[in-house]
């Protein structure tokens, strides 16, 4: 049985950049098909928004990564699904309600 994970955008970005630690291990395991990563339209949109943040420009100017390359990587790693309506309107992560979308994907 393959472990199913719903990573947030920051985990994916850190892992794709190859920063040491668990995010990089998660990306490596997903590339080798040892785990399955899940997301949806909302998590994809958040990922696209985050990779456009000014603090990441230093990576684009070095031409190590591009937003387009990272989007292709996201699309190759992620299994996109429809989230569960069961948790719509439920505030799960009180300090950061935007993270509730990840719980809806996990529930689905």
Largest sheet: 3 strands, parallel
SS strand fraction: 5-15%
- Helical percentage: 40-55%
C-alpha termini separation: 17 Å
Mean pLDDT comes to: 85
Report the radius of gyration as a whole number of Å.
Answer: 14 Å
Shape, per Cα inertia axes: globular
Please count the beta strands (DSSP E, at least 2 residues each): 3
Order of helices and strands: EHHEHHHEH
Number of helical segments with 4 or more residues: 6
| Unreliable stretches covering 5 or more consecutive residues | none
Trace the largest sheet across and list its strands: 1-2-3
- Assembly state of the chains shown: single chain
Q: Which structural class should the secondary elements be placed in?
A: mainly alpha
Description:
The chain is mainly α and 108 residues long. It is 49% helix and 10% strand. The protein contains 6 helices and 3 strands. It has a 3-stranded parallel sheet. Helix 1 crosses helix 3 (41-50). The longest helix is centred in the middle third of the chain and has 11 residues, at 67-77. The radius of gyration is 14 Å and the shape is globular. The mean pLDDT is 85.
